[in-house]
């Protein structure tokens, strides 16, 4: 749902940019409560993973595809403030290096794809876990499911207010909401599977599960003890501190496989926003991207670079920028867990 240049007038683009900048500034401070020296590398990995999975468009209807937005996933794994930072880094790299999302629309994209999806996703997640304590995976599924159409409807509202073409807001809202509910189902499945996988391996690294898990000490016949944690009624092993590197290396390896190999099989059909814009007559408002001639534009298509190679380059850029941002924002309290 990357908004291109030309869809919004200057006032709306500027206003959204101010909102996005203010949101990122607030989240830079908020991330200090969520990150420390141990968990900051996780933020870079989450951002890179979202970048890679966003390349994997999946079909949702005849002639339409969708892809992960990732706001709910980021919030659950690394916290809402850090989640916004992750999304901002992903959208910045996509817009500048890959011409995916307009430069004048960067504020709009961070607002609707980053801030809205994180806030709505995190709100639904907290509501569900509050009502059904410990049901982390179910809460993750519902959070992701709701966050996508919420983002689509906010886009429709903004376009009705400051778009460069008149629309029948009811019809466009129905079209955007309908197709993005279908995309939201795919997002929910991806989010739930990812959160479940991390919970199974390193439950201590799932920010949303903090406070929902409790240690359980099992004592053997000879006095030996084994510590586990319970989440959603299941016992899971707690990985000891100091073993973060294998998890990070495995995560980076998986991310590179997704971006470097699986991306070749992504659906070529237009995504939900593009399809709705075509059907409702405002696709012609799109203007050329300033960096649309760069070799990496359109994920290498402009420069003749294989999409997998472009994906690997993008993962490296997001890892680098996301890691720097996370380490700059992290808490310096060495005693924090």
Automatic annotation (TrEMBL):
Protein's membrane topology: Multi-pass membrane protein
Occurrences of domain PDGLE (ranges): 246-328
Keywords, ordered alphabetically: Cell membrane, Membrane, Transmembrane, Transmembrane helix, Transport
GO biological process: transition metal ion transport
Main location: membrane
Signal peptide per UniProt: none
This protein's name: Cobalt ABC transporter permease
Species in which this protein is naturally found: Nonomuraea terrae
